[in-house]
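User: Predict structure, ligand dinuclear copper ion.
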Amino acid sequence: MDQPNARQGLLNRRFLLTAGVLLSAVAWAGCGGEYPQSALHPRSDFADRLDVLFRQIFWWAMGVFVVVEAAILYTIFRWRDRPGRDRPKEVHGHILMEVGWTLAPALILVAIAIPTIRTIFIVDRPTTDPNALVIEVTGHQWWWEFEYPEMDIVTANEIHIPLGRTIDLRLRSADVMHSFWVPRLGGKRDLVPGRETQLWFTADSVGVYWGQCAEFCGTSHALMGMRVIVDTPEDFAAWAAVNAGDAVQITDAQARAGRGVFGANACVSCHRVGGTPAEGQFGPDLTHFGSRLTIGAGILDNNFENLVRWIDSTQHVKPGNLMPEVYLSADQVAQLAAYLLALR
Ligand code: CUA
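Assistant: Predicted complex:
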């Protein structure tokens, strides 16, 4: 009678072991690879503070997990049922144990609460750095507008910032609630219609950082991305000098034809190209569009093929976006793409 039970037990144990190995393999696989939106690789003072707090809480949680699991496993094996064994004696009202397991969690919560509250106060108050670079951020369905008031620069979906200087973001919304989130540089901050919020950070490494709207804001919320490019101070100054100016002169024939297409169609009523008659305010400013890394708020690399796709079937690429389909010939679309890429 015993034998089938023993075999069943062995099979169960093998199953558990295999399942355990598979599960931990899946869990470890999740830790590898390059994730541009992982908050676990902070690159600013603000993100560092959040990361330190997260790691502290993580290790407290690990400690609790190990202690509780160890107690459960010990109990299971120590007092498991065996043929001929009596029920183990139950313990009631053991004062030391009762006090211990009431007090220990309370103390752990206090140890977590103190650094948490301190961090909240630090990251929540506006920056006091008088040299901070102010950037005004406006959230739109479904793109980002960035203005540098002291430099007379307006751009969209990408900001360049200098390494080592405090960035003071003033956040507003043009329509519904959005949330500014560049995981490696800072925490989330909501953009609330009718009021201004603030967020500051100082980047400590040159690079391109991915961001994402983190508040559901309609159809294309998931496609409301952005890039923050951290430059050396010299590179930033060079970028700012170019971007503060009007659009470059267009010399290429194809691009000049595209400028004609742009001016003769609905494009001009929504988009601005500095130094030209295009003065639209509704869509992203395109004055230096050709120098941007992405199209459509961080969703496609900025190159000729993608731009043709974007102009030709924008509703397919980014469903619900507020740019209407324009009906142009393939030649006109190619000319338009050449023009936009020439705007550097
Ligand atoms: Cu904007 Cu979600």
